[in-house]
Amino acid sequence: MRESGTLNVGTALATVLAGLTVAAPAWAQSAETKSVAYEEIVVTATRRAEALSDVPLSIAAFDQEIFDKKGAKSIEDMVRMTPGLSFQQDTGGFTQQIAIRGIKSNVGAQTTGIYIDGTPIQVRSLGVATTNFYPTLFDLERVEVLRGPQGTLFGAGAQGGAIRFITPQPSFDGEMDVYARGGVQVTEGGGVGYEIGAAFGGPISENVAFRVSGYTRRDAGYVDQINRFSGDIVDKNINSQQRTSMRAALAFRLSDELTVTPSFFMEIDKADDRGFFWESYSDPKKGRFLSAWNKQPFKDEVYLPALNIEWKGEAVEIISETSYFRRNFRRSLDFSTYTPQFFGIPLAPFDYQSESILTPKQKQFTQELRVQSADPDARLKWVFGAFYQRSPFSNLQLVVDPQLPALTTSQGWTMLSFWGSNLIGDLSFSGDTNALDKQIAGFGQIDYEIVDGLTATVGARYSKTKFSFTNVGRGPLSNGATTSGKSSETPFTPKFALSYKPGAGDLVYASASKGYRIGGANRTALPPVANCLANLQQLGYDSVPPTFKSDTLWTYELGTKNSFADGRVRVELTGFYSRWKDIQRSVSLSACGGSFIGNAGEAVSKGFDFSVGAQLSDSVSLNLAGGYTDAKLDETIFGSRNTSTTPPTPRTIVSKGDSLGVPAFTLSAGAQYDGTMMGRDFYVRADYAYTSKVSGLTPGRNPANVLVYDPDLVRDDAVSLVSLRTGMQIGDADVSLFVDNLLDQAPTISRYHEAIGIDAFFQTTVRPRTFGLTVTYRR
Question: Is the pTM of this model over 0.85?
Answer without folding.
Answer: yes
